[in-house]
Predict the structure.
Amino acid sequence: MQFNWANITSLAYLTLLEQDIREFPIPVKKIKCKGVKICSYQKYAEITGATLEQITLGHELDDAFLLRGLRPGITLILYNKGKYPPRMKHTLWHEIGHIKCEHKKHSEKEEIEAHFFAAQITAPNVLIKALYKRGYSISTQFLMECFGISKEAAEKKMEYLRKYTFNHSNEYDDSLLEQFSQYLSKKYPPKNSCYYDEYFDEMEKERQNWY
Ligand SMILES: [Zn+2]
């Protein structure tokens, strides 16, 4: 299976930039996608007057469901509001990931890509790197607290970082850092002197150019 991780990361970062998301964990009301209606099963039941059992024909509810073609140009994502919030939010971004990646089917490859998209939206690698550079030690627990993701998602992210560290850079890294700079300095001020050292090194280089 061939994956274009850089491209999926770009799509995820662009979504964060376009939606003007500036803090983590991302609030549910900020989870949106152009041309897509997002509605909970619970609300859908209220609107249609059908019970949840009728909507699902008595089956247990899936986390979410993506429906196209109900009306021209409208895609509908139905989701289960009753699920554990970190998991529910990941699922919503996962469904949006299918749309952003322009998936035409739903096989194993598309599933992996949609999960990767959701993981890069809910906990972008470039921000984890920034936190690391500020002297915060990155662990499963830390990722869960900082980004409001599930233990399962945090463990997957740790696995990825152990494998690739921060080797993957992206064309939108700098734009994203700028958008989250206020959030970072407010919530995660630098803890270490080496963060400053880097800054002073740059200052020193600049100062030397004055002569
Ligand atoms: Zn999927």
Summary: The first strand starts at residue 36 and ends at 40.
